């Protein structure tokens, strides 16, 4: 492909097929052995990293991390996953696989390549179901019910190793011969491999080239040549000398305060990794801002593809994969139409399309007729169509997430204080005995700062949002979610939820006629043909609804990470997860995944540039602002 793609798209691999085997047109080499690629992978990578034996030794709630220099067709990953299924312990443990690919295969080419291995079909089908859109950056795929986590970086290898935070237990250094793909074997790459290794980390590679062996020796690996596979007489294997003690993974008890979408996704994530969790809430799951009957899975992608846009995109695609576990229960992937509902938004979307290139499985532009057909409601304009989005039942979803054998609940009691004592955290309850935990994650929305035992204050704000419940007979029910200056969901039973208001200086917890009227006015201007001709348009006094208080930050970016008292002093074992604003349903699954990575000491699902967007230090203020 000669045309330079605009961000965030990335150039796919260009393949030629000879006797059914894919070859790289760019590099002139096969992706796997013509003799038997799967057996070659088992010989080179599984056997020489002693993976079957090492898998059996992982403790309960522990993990094993494999890193790879080129994902290619995913054959190495599938072979490792198959071995994990055969040799992993019966208790909960996680296999992490971190891989990089500068020229990823399209889904169609990947499907064709993996069809060559019938014995891997079940695993290949699951990989293909979760395979991400071809956009640059990091993609975390949660597979096999959470027992396998694949972190795919689409981009340059050195960019990947600089951006990602992980320690590998084993390396698959495959690829093309160094002479054909020299950039993969630069000195800097080997330096970064060393930086991402721990004492005792092993490596294996097809190559036996002397300069590669010498470079790894200089980096601290003990290297030796050994028998290769088939026509390749020799290969290299190595181990990083155990000159220092490896840091153990995080363990101990964990308590999560707040059972909204943030707290429930985090609790479920940790439980599925084998860690017991106590979920604390004064009411129960999904009773606060996450308690609406319906919520849209939606982000507004920026005109410029910067870190903020990348975080939103990563969250959206991860959430679409995550919620698929509850498809047609609490997740309804109807598609979502982002209307160009005003001249300003029409101009913004035009700039967006001019400066960016997104794959069609993320979004594509539609004209007015196409928009009306997709939405099932006559629209005044076109817009952007997101085929993988839809709507959720947040309250019911939170209840389902909290239902896990490793999640203990403490509902119906209010937290009155949080204090460190003898290396643990003591959670005081207004009614009942205190809860003691080694680590605590505060997921309490705009109430979170009240629980942080630190001087100064953490700058978070609550924004009132009222939704309105439209009677189903009063409207033409849309087939998909429609977003503009308001959102509208397809009907659920007898209602369709629309809203929400954005009330900065209103702390009224009860629905008001004025807010209902505001929702109806904005919805009517966005979709004037929405209301049924056989029913009178409802007024504010005729509607039911609900008020919730969204929590947001001054920069409208979420917060997830360890809490710091001031600029650098960490409050050991205390974490904060809040500030999701009106996009909590979209951000919560990804940020729960990231925070669970941190709490367990496992490979991080986010690169350094996106982690910086989430840091808690930016919220801290030592003195009250002068008004």
Automatic annotation (TrEMBL):
GO terms for cellular component: cytoplasm. InterPro entries: FAD-dep_OxRdtase, FAD/NAD-bd_sf, MnmC-like_methylTransf, SAM-dependent_MTases_sf, tRNA_MAMT_biosynth_bifunc_MnmC, tRNA_MNMC2, tRNA_S-uridine_synth_MnmC_C. Residues 1-241 are annotated as: tRNA (mnm(5)s(2)U34)-methyltransferase. GO terms for molecular function: flavin adenine dinucleotide binding; oxidoreductase activity, acting on the CH-NH group of donors; tRNA (5-methylaminomethyl-2-thiouridylate)(34)-methyltransferase activity. GO terms for biological process: methylation; tRNA wobble base modification. Its cofactor is FAD. Residues 257-627 are annotated as: FAD-dependent cmnm(5)s(2)U34 oxidoreductase. Its EC number is 2.1.1.61, 1.5.-.-. Keywords: Cytoplasm, FAD, Flavoprotein, Methyltransferase, Multifunctional enzyme, Oxidoreductase, S-adenosyl-L-methionine, Transferase, tRNA processing. It holds the Pfam family Methyltransf_30. Its main location: cytoplasm. It catalyses: 5-aminomethyl-2-thiouridine(34) in tRNA + S-adenosyl-L-methionine = 5-methylaminomethyl-2-thiouridine(34) in tRNA + S-adenosyl-L-homocysteine + H(+). It is found in: Cytoplasm. Residues 119-240 form the MnmC-like methyltransferase domain. Residues 254-597 form the FAD dependent oxidoreductase domain. PANTHER family: SARCOSINE DEHYDROGENASE-RELATED, TRNA 5-METHYLAMINOMETHYL-2-THIOURIDINE BIOSYNTHESIS BIFUNCTIONAL PROTEIN MNMC. Catalyzes the last two steps in the biosynthesis of 5-methylaminomethyl-2-thiouridine (mnm(5)s(2)U) at the wobble position (U34) in tRNA. Catalyzes the FAD-dependent demodification of cmnm(5)s(2)U34 to nm(5)s(2)U34, followed by the transfer of a methyl group from S-adenosyl-L-methionine to nm(5)s(2)U34, to form mnm(5)s(2)U34. In the C-terminal section; belongs to the DAO family. In the N-terminal section; belongs to the methyltransferase superfamily. tRNA (mnm(5)s(2)U34)-methyltransferase family. This is tRNA 5-methylaminomethyl-2-thiouridine biosynthesis bifunctional protein MnmC. The gene is mnmC.
């Amino acid at each position: 492909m000669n045309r330079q793609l605009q961000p965030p798209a990335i150039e796919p691999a260009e393949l030629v097929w000879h006797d059914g085997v894919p070859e790289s047109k760019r590099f002139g080499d096969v992706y796997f052995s013509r003799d038997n690629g799967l057996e070659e992978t088992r010989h080179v990578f599984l056997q020489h990293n002693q993976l079957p034996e090492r898998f059996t030794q992982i403790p309960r709630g522990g993990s094993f991390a494999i890193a790879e220099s080129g994902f290619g067709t995913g054959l190495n990953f599938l072979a490792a996953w198959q071995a994990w299924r055969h040799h992993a312990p019966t208790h909960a443990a996680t296999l992490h696989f971190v891989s990089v690919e500068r020229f990823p295969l399209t889904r169609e080419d990947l499907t064709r390549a993996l069809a060559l291995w019938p014995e891997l079909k079940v695993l290949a089908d699951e990989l293909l179901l979760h395979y991400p859109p071809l956009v640059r950056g990091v993609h975390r795929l949660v597979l096999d019910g959470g027992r396998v986590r694949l972190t795919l970086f689409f981009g340059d290898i050195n960019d990947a190793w600089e951006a990602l935070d992980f320690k590998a237990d084993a390396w698959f250094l495959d690829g093309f011969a160094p002479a054909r793909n020299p950039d993969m074997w630069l000195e800097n790459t080997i330096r970064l491999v060393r930086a991402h290794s721990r004492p005792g980390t092993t490596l294996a590679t097809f190559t036996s080239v002397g300069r590669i062996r010498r470079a790894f020796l200089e980096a601290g690996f003990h290297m030796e040549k050994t028998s290769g596979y088939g026509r390749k007489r020799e290969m290299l294997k190595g181990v990083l000398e155990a000159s220092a003690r490896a840091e153990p993974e995080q363990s101990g008890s964990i308590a999560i305060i707040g059972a909204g979408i943030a707290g429930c996704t985090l609790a479920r994530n940790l439980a599925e990794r084998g860690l017991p969790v106590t979920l604390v809430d004064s009411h129960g799951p999904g009773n606060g801002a996450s308690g609406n009957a319906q919520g849209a899975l939606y982000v507004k992608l920026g005109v410029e593809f910067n870190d903020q846009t990348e975080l939103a995109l990563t969250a959206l695609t991860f959430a679409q994969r995550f919620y698929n576990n509850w498809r047609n229960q609490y997740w309804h992937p109807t598609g979502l139409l982002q209307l160009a509902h005003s001249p300003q938004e029409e101009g913004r979307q035009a700039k967006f399309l001019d400066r960016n290139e997104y794959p069609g499985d993320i979004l594509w532009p539609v004209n007015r007729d196409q928009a009306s057909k997709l939405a099932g409601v006559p629209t005044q304009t076109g817009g952007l169509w997101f085929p993988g989005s839809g709507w959720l039942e947040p309250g019911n979803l939170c209840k389902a997430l909290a239902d896990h054998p490793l999640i203990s609940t403490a509902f119906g009691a209010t937290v009155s204080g949080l204090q460190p004592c003898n290396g643990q955290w003591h959670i005081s309850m207004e009614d009942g005995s205190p809860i003691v935990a080694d680590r605590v994650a505060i997921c309490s929305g705009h109430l979170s700062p009240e629980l942080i035992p630190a001087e100064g204050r953490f700058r978070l704000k609550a924004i009132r949002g009222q939704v309105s419940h439209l009677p189903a007979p009063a409207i033409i029910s849309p087939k998909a979610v429609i977003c503009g200056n308001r959102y509208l969901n397809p009907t659920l039973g007898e209602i369709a939820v629309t809203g929400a208001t954005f009330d900065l200086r209103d702390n009224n917890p009860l629905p008001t006629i004025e807010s209902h009227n505001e929702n109806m006015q904005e919805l009517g201007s966005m979709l004037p043909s929405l209301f049924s001709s056989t029913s009178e348009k409802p007024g504010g006094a005729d509607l039911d609804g609900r008020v919730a208080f969204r929590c947001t930050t001054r920069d409208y970016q979420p917060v997830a990470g360890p809490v710091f008292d001031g600029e650098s002093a960490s409050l050991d074992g205390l974490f904060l997860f809040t500030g999701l604003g009106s996009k909590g349903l979209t951000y919560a699954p990804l940020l729960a995944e990231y925070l669970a990575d941190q709490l367990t000491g496992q490979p991080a699902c986010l690169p350094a540039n996106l982690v910086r967007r989430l840091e808690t230090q930016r919220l801290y203020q030592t003195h009250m602002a002068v008004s």
